[in-house]
């Protein structure tokens, strides 16, 4: 396609005459262009800082983009463009009297393709399965999270405009915008990874991009039990809770693994059920065949056209759902979620930011009041006690491991207080303080309140077996 005579295909290179240009035919792709080297040019190291900020890269990049025939590039894939970009890099290196080795050429071509098709210099981090979070703090700092711990990487952007350009391309990919008038946005990548962007002047030291990578591995409750995120008994009880269509709230802090656990719980939903998911940025990856995914929409430049989670929850009730799964409850939509749980949509699930199960109940009360401040507190608590069956608390501990620290059951009201009981608790060993957190998962010697419901679904005996200490 590139460097070959194909009349139907438009050429990648725009026609131009340059007396210093070296004919492409005399320079096979991948050959060294040994001309006068620029004195003092930095060596291209394993990180990309020396590359993307070098004069060599700047000259070649400007030459490639000015020579490229944009109309011919439209619709091409990365692999289809690679040979043409290789050819352009060689031509520009020869014309500008630059010394480019094969290794440097490969790095330059890779960075240019990342700029065209990916997320710039951090594209290799997206391909690294050991990385769970990518945090860009302006052009000079790129952190990643590996095994629950943050590390500074050698990757850098050219300047702040480069970061902004990448952020705008990500937002445009899902039909959203981010600029000075709308400097914050939630978006997602093609693989489902969640992205949050904050631009200057809100971000003082340069544009910030936070990417929560979507795991390519299918995380299940069984795998979480094997990894020590929960006990085998916890795994069995949560599996039965999902089968029995209990309303479940997954509670935890930021980055604790709430969405991952919600995905794992959803694996036990029957394939004959109609599920509606509602999220700000679609992350949930359900395996069932009958799933309707809804996503909120921010306001446009005129402040119109916004669709909030509460609007989607209300509309979902008219779509004949068997279960409603809300990615995160953080505002007035809590009132509508409780209404849905109380009106026949058993088995609904959501996540909430809270440090303990009791805190999550308090947060629910506060969010319902945001929707309807005239409701008495006792009425709100009765709705919560009636609607919610289980609260699963998950925590990212100081050793970086996510663990389910508590599974709490709501058993009703006593006066004006919601009564709860802990079915499982993680007890850490304070005497063994070191890098790794030591502890045990304890099972409470009690009969769960949802045993009667389990009997209705024919799994009461399995539940009692799972609860044996």
From TrEMBL:
Domain of life: Bacteria
Gene3D superfamilies cross-referenced by the UniProt entry: 3.30.450.380, P-loop containing nucleotide triphosphate hydrolases (3.40.50.300)
Domain Bacterial type II secretion system protein E as annotated: residue spans: 119-393
Transmembrane segments: none
Pfam families per the UniProt record, alphabetical: T2SSE
Similarity section: Belongs to the GSP E family.
Name of this chain's protein: Pilus assembly protein CpaF
Organism name: Caballeronia udeis
Lineage of the organism: Bacteria, Pseudomonadati, Pseudomonadota, Betaproteobacteria, Burkholderiales
């Amino acid at each position: 396609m590139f460097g070959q005579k194909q009349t139907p295909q438009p050429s990648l290179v725009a026609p131009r005459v340059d007396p210093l240009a070296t004919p492409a035919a005399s320079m096979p792709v991948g050959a060294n262009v040994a001309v006068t080297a620029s004195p003092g040019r930095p060596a291209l190291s394993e990180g990309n800082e020396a590359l993307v900020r070098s004069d060599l890269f700047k000259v070649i990049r400007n030459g490639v983009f000015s020579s490229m025939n944009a109309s011919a590039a439209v619709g091409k894939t990365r692999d289809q463009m690679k040979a043409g970009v290789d050819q352009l890099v060689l031509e520009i290196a020869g014309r500008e009297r630059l010394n480019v080795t094969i290794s440097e050429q490969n790095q330059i071509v890779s960075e240019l393709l990342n700029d065209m098709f990916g997320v710039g210099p951090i594209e290799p981090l997206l391909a690294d399965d050991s990385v769970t979070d990518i945090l860009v703090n302006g052009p000079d700092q790129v952190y990643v999270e590996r095994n629950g711990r943050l590390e500074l990487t050698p990757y850098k952007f050219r300047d702040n405009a480069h970061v902004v350009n990448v952020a705008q391309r990500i937002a445009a990919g899902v039909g959203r915008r981010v600029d000075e008038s709308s400097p914050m946005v939630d978006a997602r990548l093609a693989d489902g990874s969640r992205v949050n962007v904050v631009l200057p002047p809100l971000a003082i030291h340069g544009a910030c991009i936070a990417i929560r990578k979507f795991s390519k591995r299918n995380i299940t409750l069984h795998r979480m039990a094997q990894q020590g995120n929960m006990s085998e008994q916890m795994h069995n009880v949560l599996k039965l809770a999902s089968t029995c269509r209990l309303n479940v709230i997954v509670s935890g802090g930021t980055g604790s693994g709430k969405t991952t656990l919600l995905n794992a719980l959803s694996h036990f939903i029957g394939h004959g059920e109609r599920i509606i998911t509602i999220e700000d940025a679609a992350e949930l990856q359900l395996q069932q065949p009958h799933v309707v995914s809804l996503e909120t929409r921010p306001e446009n430049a005129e402040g119109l056209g916004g669709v909030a989670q509460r609007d989607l929850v209300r509309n979902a009730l008219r779509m004949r759902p068997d279960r409603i799964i809300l990615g995160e409850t953080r505002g007035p939509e809590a009132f509508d979620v409780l209404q849905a749980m109380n009106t026949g949509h058993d088995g609904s699930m959501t996540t909430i930011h809270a440090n303990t199960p009791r805190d999550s109940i308090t947060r629910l009360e506060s969010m319902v009041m945001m929707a309807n401040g005239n409701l008495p507190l006792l009425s709100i608590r009765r709705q919560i006690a009636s609607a919610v069956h289980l609260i699963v608390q998950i925590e990212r501990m100081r050793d970086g491991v996510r663990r389910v620290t508590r599974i709490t059951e709501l058993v009703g009201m006593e006066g004006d207080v919601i009564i709860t009981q802990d079915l499982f608790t993680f007890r850490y060993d304070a005497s063994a303080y070191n890098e790794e957190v030591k502890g045990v998962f304890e099972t409470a010697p009690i009969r769960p309140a949802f045993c009667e419901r389990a009997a209705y679904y024919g799994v009461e005996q399995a539940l009692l077996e799972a609860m044996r200490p």
